[in-house]
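Input record (one chain):
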Amino acid sequence: MKLIQGLGDFFALDIGTNAVRIVQLDSGNNAWRLNKYAYVPVDVHVTTSDSAESQRRLGEVIMTAIGQGAIRSRNVVIGIPSNKTFTTVVDVPMSNDTELRATMKYQVDQYIPSSVDDTKVDWVKLGPSLRAQNQQEVLITSVAQSYSEQRLEFVESLGLNVLAAEPDPIAMARALLPAGNQAALLLLDMGENSTDIVVVYGEAPRLVRTIPTGLGSFIKAATQNLNVQEDQARQFILKFGLASDRLDGQVLHALTSSLDGFVSEVTKSIKFFQTRYQNSTVSTILLSGFASAIPGLSEHLSANTGVQAQVANPWQDIIVSQEAQMQLGPVAHEFAAVIGLAKRSN
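The corresponding structure, as predicted from the sequence alone:
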């Protein structure tokens, strides 16, 4: 996994739980411009199965997306689901780049949860430690070698050339981070089955974690507590959200237990970061994915964490045509990770 490198002509591919997303950007004249894009829904049972039939169907969906987006390049950067990766930030003694490479080569195994022989590992220097003198911080990310090779073989079997693979949370942070940021921000991207959290300070990730609560968790709670079908529960959550004056507040009441657990995990992330970096305070929570599409969730998080939460815009610095804006409208909030992958050309 190459974390930072110019790659030339390529497109970004996000094989999500509920959809395949493609983005290709142009970066001329010091500005990002949306060149091509695609969004094709996919059955969750297909994306979560390793069976030959599911892989065949998923390949068809990917090729449909490539055709829909009129993608000509065969070069692709792919995302790696957060539940398949391990990411951490460690302090190591200050040294030059040559010494750091040697240190990481022989000591990286003590920082990852699996054998280095069975794991694909990458790291990047963040700079001087924010909490310890004569130390520097290094971001380490790893993925099982077997999964990495399987995913690479699958994508390349479609006639594509994989230039790089990157954990979804790292890509998401690149898309959501405001230009020139100097503050501590918590970036939160909710998917179908889980939520990725990245706490950044300045322009670098300092804490990366995933919590097993996604939109699907809320849908399950609403289905059980409101005695409705899943499709209707999804509609209720995304239309009425946490408003106490809609449906007599039934949706909010049905989600109370799930919301409490979700808020607790977000609060834990804030406290962990602020304990590690005692001179830094998380100033804002930025919401993306389904978290930005649930009415009232930002206000609920603000009230229950004590940190201002607001909806993020993964398209914040990208020039998008009016036609594309209209087509992307209903699903634009789902593109944070794939936009971050597409920005790797910078």
